[in-house]
Amino acid sequence: MATTTTTNSNEAAASLSDVTEVTIHPLVLLSATDHYHRVARGTRKRAVGVLLGSSSRGAVDATNSFAVPFEEDSKNSEVFYLDHNYLENMLAMFRKVHAKERVVGFYSTGPQIRSNDLRIFDLVKRFVPQGTITPPVFVIIDVRPGRESIPTTAYRVVEEVDSNVPAAGKKGENGGGAAEVRKTFAHVPSLIGAMEAEEVGVEHLLRDINDPTVSTVANLVKAKLSGLSTLTEKLVEMKDYLTAVSNGSMKPNSEIIANMQAIVNLLPNLNVEELVRSMLVKNNDMHMVIYLSALIRCVIALHDLVLNKIAYNEEVGDGLGEVVVGKVKKVDKADAGEEKKEDDDAKAKK
Fold it and tell me: By CB neighbour count within 10 A (0-12 exposed, 13-18 middle, 19+ buried), where does 123 fall?
């Protein structure tokens, strides 16, 4: 019984220590973007900072962050600098303002994982309060403007056993050497969340960015295009993964392959005649509506142009007519005067 109780308690502690999801708040995104534009914009550098927030039952909630002075050698990936004193002073000041916020991880503008990230993780882990069950997380915040999907990617550190280490026994025998255990990053689902006050602030920011000249239909079409481009990126990523697994350059992961199989099974069967016919009918109906809408829009625009032309002629046309008539009368009088003068000269000569 004692052994069973100990095993159950260990499993419960392990389940609580696992990170299940990471929620990033808008303030973190704004701070990371501002940090990048101040420090690394236009260069190949990246910005690194500390995430603050809370965690409960494996769910990490990053509500705040601050930048940390960070430099790394572009030629030697093993050389980097992180200001510990600055980090300690900032944490002490944040505790005075927000006592409940603690270190939950660190962020980087990436956009990819680098070799120094595991060492940075070990450094940041020192500042996590004692007694904390949930380990810190690593979040890559992609600040590139061309990204269409969620700009955050979260990771947690896991230990993997490398079974390719040679055994320590005699030649030709299976030795009893222990396999090497190494740390690596594992993907964690991430999402963008906000409290009510943060939602109001984001709405005010978007109101300033909103372009009133763009119609609602254009926004809907843009959203559809961005969704399709993101889907294309994910499909290409799945294709590259399967190609790497088939070539032997990457180890197969049963969970990833099972998810891909589930996605493929959820695809509709397009070989059914009724489905193909219904899709064609709906597509033709949509194109007919688009054609009629464009035709009606052109007719209304031409009608407004004609009405505008008529109103302009009614307001300005009479005045122009009087001016023209006056000019014609003056020209006629001048011609008559010249003809009379010529007749007088002819009579004087006779």
Answer: middle
The count of C-alpha atoms lying within 13 angstroms of the C-alpha of 290, restricted to the half-sphere facing its C-beta, is: 7
Asked if 52 and 101 touch (Cβ cutoff 8 Å), the reply is yes
- Both structure tokens of 207: 């109101």
pTM more than 0.85:
no
Name the pLDDT band for 291 (thresholds 50, 70, 90): very high
Tokens of 97: 């303002």
Q: Where is average pLDDT lowest: 149-158, 191-200, 284-293, 315-324?
A: 315-324
What is the rounded distance in angstroms from the CA atom of residue 167 to the CA atom of residue 346? 136
Distance, in Å, from the CA atom of 297 to the CA atom of 304, rounded to the nearest integer, reads 11
On the 0-12 / 13-18 / 19+ scale of CB atoms within 10 A, 91 is middle
| Helical H segments across 135-215, by residue range | 196-209
Q: How many CA atoms lie within 13 A of 53 on its CB side?
A: 28
Residues 274-283 have a mean pLDDT of 88
According to DSSP, the residues that pair with 211 across neighbouring strands are: none
Coil, helix or strand at residue 93? helix
